[in-house]
Write a structure and sequence with these properties.
It contains nine helices and two strands, in the order E-H-E-H-H-H-H-H-H-H-H. With 189 residues, it is mainly α.
Length: 189
């Protein structure tokens, strides 16, 4: 859990994370949770006309996860993204969402994050799993604040071992299955 300023390291957080203010000032790459952007898109889609709901979600999914496959330059990105903006320009909630997506494009849109090494994980997966492990899936969350120093250190030691075991197991699984990393990160392995 150490903090370093190594620009080769990547931090993944929720948009409103306390880490954001610290890591935002550092040189490393900072990715935002794509899951939250997807969830917000579902909310926005709920107030657009029914016939556009599925299309809006497909468009958002393209930008978040697949845009690196078919967009090859900054100019091409701008052209395609402008078309996306124009398509939903009459829906205020969609406009607000799309503007937020554009504002955070370097941290969440696949075209911009394609060269960032994440061991095959999207920004929601690994961070959420570790967060849940640290809190022992919620049932100790409220109890931890009442621990004395010895109890706290024993708990940290136990959870740290659990995190390392699960993380190594997941990483081993990713490597063995050659899961989902592209040519652009092969050299990292």
């Amino acid at each position: 859990l150490g903090v370093s300023d190594d620009p080769n390291h990547t931090i993944m957080t929720d948009e409103g994370s306390a880490f954001m203010s610290y890591f935002g000032e550092r040189q490393r790459k900072h990715l935002l949770c794509s899951h939250h952007f997807k969830q917000k898109a579902i909310e926005v889609a709920g107030i657009t006309p029914h016939e556009l709901k599925t299309e809006f979600l497909q468009d958002v999914s393209f930008w978040l996860f697949h845009s690196w496959k078919s967009i090859h330059s900054e100019l091409h990105f701008q052209q395609r993204f402008s078309e996306f903006q124009e398509k939903y320009a009459i829906f205020p909630s969609a406009v607000k969402y799309i503007n937020k997506l554009e504002e955070n494009k370097n941290s969440v849109i696949a075209f911009y994050t394609q060269n960032v090494f994440t061991a095959g994980a999207y920004t929601s997966q690994r961070a959420k799993a570790l967060n849940a492990m640290i809190k022992v899936w919620g049932h100790l969350k409220k109890e931890i604040r009442n621990y004395n120093l010895v109890e706290l250190m024993q708990w940290v030691d136990c959870v740290t071992r659990s995190i390392m075991e699960k993380t190594l197991s997941e990483l081993s699984s990713i490597i063995n299955r050659k899961q989902g990393w592209g040519e652009f990160v092969k050299h990292k392995w």
